[in-house]
Write a structure and sequence with these properties.
Layout (H helix, E strand, L loop, with lengths): L24 H8 L3 H8 L17 H11 L3 H11 L16 H9 L5 E4 L5 E4 L1 H7 L11 H7 L3 H4 L3 H18 L4 H13 L1 H8 L8 E8 L3 E11 L7 E5 L6 H13 L7
Antiparallel strand pairs: 1-2, 1-5, 3-4, 4-5
Helix pairs in contact: 1-2, 1-3, 3-4, 4-9, 6-12, 7-9, 9-11, 10-11
């Protein structure tokens, strides 16, 4: 976003030290070829008027492409910009399913050597297999708090669980931003953001950065009290036919130290209490 872009990089004078880093609104507007008022209206989601509107009343592709070019947005960020600049009115009911289909649970249980769980649109944990429960203790969390951002920011134990807590926290917020662009009128999402903003200074700071990134795959490190330090690559898969449900699967390389430790954790889970 504009915070990471310095005026000198785009041929503008810096005019000395700035109160906040990055481009000012008027500079973004100048580079994108729109008025400052127009750009502010876009930022605030009030919808612009004038010739840059489409026939349906939305912002034109040319304007959005120009702003995306100035801010150097990637594909995910550009899609987010299109969504927030063209809010859908009178949308059909988008209430997500409260749980997962029986067949999805069977699929999770069949992955007995890989921790796997299902996230809903607000990153609520909807279902999991035995190994995921042994790793993260989902079954011991009250349903009301079984949510990834809430766990990361409000549970002090998360800072011990994730050695790279700062990166995990930033990733959670960036992913939640994607959801807010798609379902910004969801009252439960607004309540979650409000709760985290009130209770976590770290969340407030990261949310204000407006970073947008879908966490489709990557690597996460977890320090488990029984299994020790685990390096866990992960992949996410969309659940067909369900609104914004994704399956997250940790995929350690077969024969790796992490895979061996997970196998031991799975054996331990059948004879002792699960979860960290």
């Amino acid at each position: 976003m504009s915070v990471s872009i310095q005026p000198e990089e785009v041929g503008l004078p810096s005019h000395g030290r700035r109160r906040v880093p990055g481009l000012r609104r008027e500079e973004v507007a100048q580079l994108a070829g729109v008025s400052v008022d127009y750009y502010i209206r876009l930022e605030q989601g009030r919808g612009p008027g004038g010739p840059s509107r489409t026939k349906s009343g939305g912002v034109s592709d040319a304007v959005l492409a120009s702003i995306a070019r100035v801010l150097r947005l990637d594909d995910t960020e550009h899609a987010y910009l299109r969504t927030v600049a063209r809010p859908q009115r009178g949308k059909k009911d988008r209430t997500p399913a409260p749980g997962v289909r029986p067949g999805v649970q069977v699929l999770l249980d069949g992955m007995d050597r890989m921790p796997a769980f299902v996230l809903g649109p607000r990153m609520d944990v909807l279902a999991w297999n035995t190994l995921a429960d042994a790793l993260s203790g989902f079954s011991r969390m009250p349903p009301a708090v079984r949510n990834i951002p809430r766990h990361v920011f409000l549970d002090p134990a998360s800072r011990d669980l994730y050695p790279d807590w700062t990166a995990v926290a930033a990733q959670a917020v960036a992913n939640l931003r994607v959801t807010s662009g798609r379902d910004g009128d969801d009252p439960k999402l607004s309540a979650l953001v409000g709760e985290l903003s009130l209770q976590s200074e770290d969340f407030r700071r990261l949310w204000a950065d407006h970073e947008v990134k879908e966490c489709a795959y990557g690597v996460k490190r977890v320090r488990h009290p029984v299994a020790g330090l685990l390096t866990l690559p992960y992949e996410t898969l969309a659940v067909p036919g369900e609104l914004a449900q994704t399956i997250v699967v940790y995929t350690p390389e077969p024969g790796s130290e992490t895979a061996e430790r997970l196998a031991l954790l799975g054996s331990w889970a059948t004879t002792g209490p699960t979860g960290p």
